[in-house]
Write a structure and sequence with these properties.
With 81 residues, the protein is mainly α. It has one domain. The chain is built from 3 helices and no strands.
């Protein structure tokens, strides 16, 4: 199960880098600031799940909304091309 969580963490990091790279070359950002915040919220949630020192009642559970998830999947497809 940790492998899937770590893979998801890598995916989220990759789309944030992709978005930043797009802006650096003068293209519009792939994600709005609010969407980037949501992506980082999910990343923080994953990190709290992986941290074995976090008490179970303090583990954060957050996933990006479905509409944002479809944008993430689209960006991942572009990255894989």
């Amino acid at each position: 199960m940790n492998d899937n969580i770590i893979f998801r963490l890598d995916e989220l990091f990759a789309v944030l880098i992709y978005c930043s790279d797009q802006q650096q070359v003068g293209r519009p950002a792939s994600f709005t600031e609010l969407e980037r915040i949501c992506i980082n919220q999910e990343r923080g949630s994953i990190l709290s799940q992986l941290n074995q020192e976090t008490p179970p009642h303090e583990v954060r559970r957050y996933t990006c909304p479905a509409k944002l998830e479809s944008k993430i999947q689209f960006a991942l497809k572009k990255l894989n091309q």
